[in-house]
Every structure is written in structure tokens, then in C-alpha cells.
Amino acid sequence: MGMITLGILGSGAGSNMQAILDAIDAGALDARVGIVLSDHPDAHILERAELKGIRAGVIDCSGHSMKFPDVAQEETARKLREAGVELVCLAGFMRMVKRPLLDAFPSRILNIHPSLLPVFPGLEAWRQAVEAGVSESGVTVHLVDAGMDTGLILGQERVSVFPDDTPEMLHARLQAAEHRLYPAVIGRYAAQLMQ
Ligand code: GAR
């Protein structure tokens, strides 16, 4: 079985990307990261990628605060293909992926989401969980489709919510679970793709 080439898209700190890189370094994930792209030029995820000598680039979404314009998706698909990417991992990427990119990588885009989907889709799922007063939440890795966090679920890990949790406390606990789950599910899914 060959080693799969991943492409990572992120908008923020990049702790999930770091977990993927750490799993690769530890020999727990048979993959390489070909390119890291961000819609925010100053996102920490880009710095982390550059520190590791990984190709990093900016997706130009200027003029659009939330939308992922078609031209930007086409440009993203082109950069991912150029880097030899076989599987795309969204890691805190905060724009909704639509047709141009989905069509370029059918059933080959994964996302990590900080809730037990289908509960609490969308933004700040950790805050949604605290405000709903649930005693359990968790994290989900799923295939990306055109909906909001609706694609096929590939793996989940449960996380306790305590009565005095703040959204930030819960988010930190959820992130620890994300960092375990995402590299493990990527490895399993990649092995299926590479068969
Ligand atoms: C993660 O908690 C991820 O689950 C969440 O953003 C954070 C990014 O952190 N994603 C979403 O809420 C997607 N709807 P990171 O940049 O440190 O990996």
C-alpha cells in the first residue's frame, strides 16, 4: 500500500493539523502532507506548516467574509491537484465547501466537527452544547457534502460535559478528543482508498 498525500485546509490555529503531523512523525499515520491552504493570510496554521517545511498558501476570498466563492474553490482544487493531493482534510476551515471543490475530490474531503453530529451542526458547537445543558457531547469526523455538517459519519468520540463547564473549558476537552480521533479516522479511510 502506498503512502497517501493529504491536503489540509484551515482558518485558524491549526492544532488539528499539528495532531495529524505528530501522528505521521510518530509512525501512527502512513501519510504525507502535500500542501496546507488557509483563507486567512495570518492564520497560525500557515506558520506551523512553514515551520515543518510544508508548502503553504493563501486562498483568496477577499470581499467575502463567509462565502467560499466558486473561483476560489476552483483555485483551491488546482493547487491541491498540483501538490498531488489524494485526500483533503478540513481542519478548522470555516467556509462551506460547495460544488467546484466537491466535484474535484468526490468522497475525498473529510471534516472534523466538535459535536456528536447530527446534534449541534454549524458554528461554536461547544457553546451550543453548554447552552443546551447536555451532559455529553463529543467530536465527529465525516465526509463533506454540500450541506452544513451533514456528510457520512466516519467516526465519533464521546466527551463528558460537566455542570460548571464554560464553553472554553468544553472546547479544550473536545479538542483533545479531536486530536486523537482525526488522525485515526484519516488513517482508516486512507487505507480504504489506497486498497
Ligand atoms: C476545531 O475545534 C474544529 O473542530 C472546529 O474548529 C476548531 C479548529 O481548531 N471546526 C468547526 O467548528 C467546523 N465547523 P484548530 O485550528 O486548532 O484545529
Can you tell me about this structure?
The chain is α/β, with parallel strands linked by helices and 195 residues long. The chain has a single domain (4-194), classed as Formyl transferase, N-terminal domain (Rossmann fold, 3-Layer(aba) Sandwich). Helix content is 37%, strand content 22%. The chain has helices spanning 15-25, 44-51, 70-82, 99-104, 125-132, 167-193; strands spanning 4-9, 31-38, 56-58, 87-90, 109-113, 136-143, 153-160. It has a 7-stranded mixed beta sheet, sandwiched between helices. Strand 2 (31-38), helix 2 (44-51) and strand 3 (56-58) form a beta-alpha-beta unit. Helix 1 (15-25) crosses helix 6 (167-193) and helix 5 (125-132) crosses helix 6. The termini are close together. Residues 10, 12-16, 45, 91-92, 112-114, 125, 175, 178 line the site of glycinamide ribonucleotide. Glycinamide ribonucleotide binds at residues 10, 12-16, 45, 91-92, 112-114, 125, 175, 178.
Strand content: 15-25%
The tally of strands reads 7
Q: Uncertain runs with pLDDT below 50, 5 residues or more?
A: none
Radius of gyration: 16 Å
Shape: globular
Helix-strand sequence: EHEHEHEHEHEEH
Helix content: 25-40%
